[in-house]
Amino acid sequence: MGDTVRMSRMLRTLSGLALAALALAASPAYARDMASDPDVARTVSFGGSCARCEFSGRKLMDASFMGAQFPSAILVRADLRGAKLIGSNFAGADFSRADLRGAQLVGSNFKGAIFVGASMSGLDAKAANFSGADLTGAQAMSAQISVCDFRGATMIRARFTSADLTHAVLNDVNAQDTNFANADLVDSNLSGGHFDKANFNSADLSRATLSGGSFGGASFHSAELAGANLHGTDLVGARGLTQDQIDSACTDSSTRLPSGLRANGCHRVASPAAPVPPMPPMPPMPPSVQAEVRQALAHSREAIAHASEAARKAIEAARRRDRDDD
User: Fold this and answer.
1) pLDDT tens digits, residue range 155-168?
2) Nearest CA to 164 among 187, 183, 136, 140?
3) Dihedrals φ, ψ of 45, to 5°?
4) Residues of the chain with pLDDT under 70
5) Could you give the CA distance from residue 13 to residue 9 in angstroms, rounded to a whole number?
6) What pLDDT is recorded for position 313?
């Protein structure tokens, strides 16, 4: 019983230290002070919570937002090149014309955020949530945006050339006149989306789902459609499609094709399981707190080992009593 109590106390201590670490990483007051400085240092780290913080035009190159809560923050024209916005909440934030080239946005929430005219080339935003976001005119060439959620997003005239959109969810997006040339859209879901006049030249749409989408005037020259689901897809008016491409895909009587092309059934290609989204790292904490956390973890492991040994002995004693009773 004593070992169990000690273990419980250690676990409570560990939880308290973890919470203290998060609080010490950065406070709302500190975030607001930094927001008022137009020349924020490159090495600054943000955490905590600061709703509607004003960062417009700020120099935040290589800044670190780890596990931060910044809903509806305003970052219009902010310089975020190489910044790390990891595991953070920026729902409803305004990144209009911000420079996010080479930034890391892994596992963060940008639901309903605004990225109109933003520079996003080469950024890494795996498993981020962009549902309902406005990416009109965004420049996201060669971006790493696999396993991202773009449901209901607006990305009119955006550029995703050579971007990695594997396993991306693009249901019901408005991507008219958007450029996906040479993009990797393997296993992505484009169902119900508006892709009129979009450019898919040389894009890889293997095993992608295009069901219920509209692609009037879209271009598919040299695009890969092996195993793509075209059930209920409107491709009338699409350009660059060949019979070989259609034959490699999965079509039915509801597939609408350009004149001269015919639906020939389904040629499925086995789809691998979607990758597990990466877990965002914990926010940074001071070295002294890190040492205390490590010590608490060591004590917790020791307490758990003692409790396990006590339980083993109790089970053995119970078994001996059962044998004696027999």
Assistant:
1) 999 999 999 999 99
2) 183
3) -120, 140
4) 1-43, 267-304, 306-308, 311, 318, 322, 325-326
5) 6
6) 76
- CA atoms of 96 and 117, how far apart (whole Å): 6
Cβ–Cβ under 8 Å, residues 140 and 120: yes
pLDDT score for 268: 56
d(CA 203, CA 224): 6
- Domain limits, the chain: 1-26+283-326, 34-99, 120-273
Nearest-angstrom CA–CA distance, 198 and 235? 12
CATH of 120-273, one of 2.160.20, 1.10.10, 3.30.70, 2.60.40: 2.160.20
In the block, residue with structure tokens 């035009």: 57
Q: State if pTM tops 0.70.
A: yes
Q: 174 in helix, strand or coil?
A: strand
Rounded to the nearest angstrom, the gap between the alpha carbon of residue 238 and the centroid of all alpha carbons in its chain is 30
* CA–CA dist 213, 171 (Å, integer): 9
